[in-house]
Amino acid sequence: MHLLTLPFALAFGLGVALLIGLAAQRLLGVRLGLFRLLLTGVFAMSVGPLIVYAMLTEFVAPADELTRQNGSTAFWFVLLAAVCTILSSMAFLVIIEAFVPLGSIPPALVWGRGLLGRLKRSRRYWQIVGIAMRHGLGSYVRGTRDRALDVPSGRAQLGRSLATTMNAGGVTFVKIGQILATRRDLLPAEVAAELAKLQDQATPVPWPDVRAVVEAELGAPVDQVFAEFDPQPLGAASVGQVHAARLRTGAEVVVKVQRPGIRPVVERDLDIAARLASRLETGTRWGRRVGVRSLAAGLATAVREELDYRIEADNITAIAGSTTRAEGVVLPEPHLALCTERVLVMDRVDGVPLTKAAAVVTEHDLDREQLATTLLDCLMRQIILDGVFHADPHGGNIVLLDDGRLGLLDFGSVGRLDGALREALQRLLLGVDHSDPLAVSDALLELVPRPDEIDQQELERDLGRFMARHTSGTLTSSARMFGDLFRVVADHGLAVPPEIAAVFRTLATAEGTISTVAPEFDLFTSARRLASGYVDEQYGPENLRNAASEELVALLPILRRLPRRVERIASAAEHGRLGMNVRLLADDRDRSFLRDMLHEVLLTFLAATTGIMSAMLLGTAGGPMVTDSVSLYELIGYNMLVISAILALRVLAQIFRRGPRHD
C-alpha cells in the first residue's frame, strides 16, 4: 500500500511545488526555467509549514488547542502565512538571480550530454595551465608582475614565455600565436617579435588517412577524380598539408587536405583560450589594457575561418574577380566543384618563394625595384580600390615564377574594407604625402570610432610630430612607423578597428617580404606615391565625366518632382496652413526604455508608500482586537508590509535580470 501511495505523494508534491513556483514567477514578472520553478516550490513547501506553525502558536493558540471559536481567526492567519510563504519564495528567487543569473549555468540536459566533453576539456584546461606555469607565465596570470611590463626587457620576457607556452600547447595555440604576432596595434613590439618566431610545422599525415579524407569529402575514389596524386606532401602544417596532383583534364593542381580530427581539438582549445582570456582580463592590469577577451574572440573567428577551405576558395575568387588587378601577378584558380570544407583544389603556381629567390633574381638579372613595386601595387590596389586584399603576404606566400611574374598563395587570411573606410584610408595616405596634419587627423577620425571627447588640436600636433619623424626623407621601418602611429592613437583614447589594423599588418608584413629582394625599397614612400596615382585614376577627366553622368541620372527623378513640392510648400505658407509635426520618442527602443523606467519608479514609489503605511499601522495603538494580542490595525499593517516587500522584490528582480552578463 505504501509503495502505491509513494508515487502519488511525489506527484502531488511536485505539482504543488510547481504551482507555488508559478505564483512566485507571476508576482515577480519574470520567466524562469522548470528547474528553478521546482526548486522555488520545494523551498516554499519546506518553510511554509514552519511559518504556519509559528503564526498559529504566536497569535492564535497552540495547534493542539484550536477550538471552533478561534477557528475563523486561525483561517485568516493561515492565509497570511501562505502569502508569507510565497513572499519567502520570491525572496529566494531574487537571491538566486543576484548570485546565479538565469543562463549562467547550462540546463540539466546539457550537463548530462556534455559531461564527458567537460571532463576532457577540464583535463586539457589544466594541462594548458600547467604548461603556462612551467614556462613562467604564472606570475603574469596572477598579476604580480604587471610592473615588469613597463620596461622593454620585461615585455620581451613575457613574449618569450608566451611563445614557448603556445609552442608546447599544440596546433591551436601555435595558430593563435602566429595571428597575435601580426597584431602590433594591440601587443607591444617586443611581445609580437617573440611570437613571430613560432613555426607552423608538423609531421605529415600518413597517406591512407589523407586518402580517406579526400574520398569522404569528394564522394569518390581518388583515382576517379585525379589522374595522378602524389602521396608525398609538398608541405605539412598543423592544420593541413598540400599534395601535388593532376586532374583528368590534364590540369596541374595542388590539393590542400585538412588533418583528420583536427576540428574538435581546435574547438576545445579555442574554448579554453576564451576562458583563459576572461581570467586574464579580470585578474591582470595588462589584460584589461589589451582587452584580451575581445582579442581572443577575434582570434577564434580567424582560426575557424582557416578550418573551412570553402572560405579560402571564395577569397581567391573574390580577389581574382576584381576589376583593378595589377599586372605581373598571378593567382591560382580554384576548382570550385572540388572544393569542400576540408579539401581545396586549385591550379598549381610553381615558383620559388620570395624569401629564397635572391639567387634567382641575380641569375636572371631581374629588376629588384620593379618586383617590389609590382607586389606593393598589387596589394595597394586590393586595399584601396577593391576592398578585398591578401592579409598575409609573408615570403612563403609569395613566389617568383620562371617568367619573372609573382604568384600569390594561401588566401586563408583575407581582409575586407567597405567604401567609406577605403576613401578615408586614401585621404590618410594623401594627407601624409602632403604633410598635412589636419587632413591626416580628419581622415584618422573617420577610420576609428570617435570618442565623445577628444582634444583634436593636440592630436594634430602629435600627428605633425609623427610625420616629421617618419616622412622627412629618412628610411624608416614600417613596423616601427605603424607602432608609433598606434601609440599616438592609443594616447588619445582611440581604438583602431580590426579592418584597419589588418591593413597596417599587411603592409608591415609585405615590407619584410620585399626587403629580402630589395633591401633599399622604401615601402611607405612608394605606397604614398601609388595612392596618389590611384586618385588620378579615379578622378581623371573621363572618370569624373562618367561619375557626373551617373549622379545626374540618379537625381533626375528628384529634380522633376522638386518644383511641385516647392510650390505646395509656398502655397501652404501663403494660406497659413504650413505646419510641422515632430514625434517625440518615435523609436520603439526609446519608448520601451521610458516605459520600463516609469514602471520601476512607480513600483518603487508604491513599495515605499505601502511600507510607510504598514509601519504607521503597526505603530498605532488601539482599534478592534482580532485576537488577544493582535489588533485589526496590526493585521492590516502586516498584510501591507507583505505587499510592500513583494513590490520591492519585483523591482530588485528586474534590476538583477537586466544586469550585465559576463558569461
TrEMBL record:
Residue ranges occupied by any ABC1 atypical kinase-like domain in the UniProt entry: 197-437
Keywords, ordered alphabetically: Membrane, Transmembrane, Transmembrane helix, Ubiquinone
Pfam families documented for this protein: ABC1
Cited SUPFAM superfamilies: Protein kinase-like (PK-like)
Spans traversing the lipid bilayer: 6-25, 37-56, 76-96, 601-623, 635-653
InterPro entries given in the database record: ABC1_dom, Kinase-like_dom_sf, UbiB_kinase
Domain of life: Bacteria
Keyword rRNA-binding in record: no
Family (UniProt): Belongs to the protein kinase superfamily. ADCK protein kinase family.
Annotated PANTHER family: CHAPERONE-ACTIVITY OF BC1 COMPLEX CABC1 -RELATED, PROTEIN ACTIVITY OF BC1 COMPLEX KINASE 7, CHLOROPLASTIC
Name this polypeptide is given: Ubiquinone biosynthesis protein
Organism listed in the record: Haloactinopolyspora alba
Lineage: Bacteria, Bacillati, Actinomycetota, Actinomycetes, Jiangellales
